[in-house]
Each structure stands twice: as structure tokens, then as C-alpha cells.
Amino acid sequence: ALAAAEVLAESGIDVEVIDPRTVAPLDMGTIVGSVKKTNRAVIVHEACRTCGIGAEIGMRIMEEAFDYLDAPVKRVAAVDVPVPYNRILEDAALPNVEDIISGVREVLA
User: Fold this and answer.
1) 6, 10, 71, 101: which has the fewest C-beta neighbours closer than 10 Å?
2) Which residues, 6+ apart, have CB-to-CB distance to 55 below 8 Å?
3) What is the CA 1 to chain-centroid distance, rounded?
4) Helix or strand (DSSP H, E) at 4
5) For the segment 42-86, what is each residue's pLDDT rounded down to a tens digit?
6) Which of helix, strand or coil describes residue 53?
7) How many C-beta atoms lie closer than 10 Å to residue 29's C-beta?
8) What CA–CA distance (Å, rounded) separates 74 from 51?
9) 74 DSSP β-pair partners
10) DSSP, residue by residue, 29-45
11) What residue spans define the domains of the chain?
């Protein structure tokens, strides 16, 4: 995410990167504060998109900060398959810098 933020900054797009250290408790105050400031949310995680932690965070954003959103919450996550052990296949399954940049540009469009 930080590498994507650097690339986006070169294009004049400033993003906030929040790295929650725990999911229980989840620091929704920081997340909601960022949504209030930016009016957008892109959630990046390595779990599967379906039923991953990003879905829970997205729902919490919808419950707690919906009125501040100028675009739908975007999730950038792994494809819905078990993460392969093979490094090449793992890289293909997990989100990468280009996926994150694409997600950010999508919510800004």
C-alpha cells in the first residue's frame, strides 16, 4: 500500500494509508476520521474478497460514516481461492501495487 501511495503521489494524488494492528478491537475512530477527511475508502487486504476482513471494515464504514462517502467503498483483495504455496501463483492471487492504484483511481473517477 505504501508503494502504491508513493506512485499515486507522483501523479498528484495524496492518499492516507492506515495499517490497523488489530482487528479486535478495530480502531474505527481512525478509519472513520480518514473517511470524514477524504470522503472515500479503499480497503486493501490479503484475505479473500468474499468474507474477508475488508468486508467487515467496509460494512462498519457504511454504518458509521455513510453520509461522508462520495463514492462506494472499494475493496482490493486476494482472489477467492486458497492462497497458493507456489510464489508465482501466490503473487498472482494477492493484490499488488497496480491493483491498489487501479482501486484508488476507480473511487476518484
Assistant:
1) 10
2) 49, 75
3) 8
4) helix 2-10
5) 999 999 999 999 999 999 999 999 999 999 999 999 999 998 999
6) helix
7) 9
8) 14
9) 42
10) HHHHHHHHHHS--EEEE
11) 18-95
CB contact at 8 A, 71 and 43: no
In angstroms, rounded to a whole number, what is the distance separating the alpha carbons of residues 21 and 30?
12
- Stated length of the chain: 109
Q: What predicted TM-score, i.e. pTM, was given to this entire model?
A: 0.91
CA atoms within 13 A on the CB side of 56: 12
CA–CA separation, 23 and 15 (whole Å): 22
Contacts of 34 (CB under 8 A, 6+ apart): 16, 18, 41
Cell of 58: 467496509
C-alpha cell at 71: 463514492
Q: At a CB cut-off of 8 Å and minimum separation 6, what does 26 contact?
A: 20, 56, 57, 60
Cell of 19: 495499517
Long-range pairs for 82-88: beta carbons < 8 A, 24 or more residues apart: 83/46
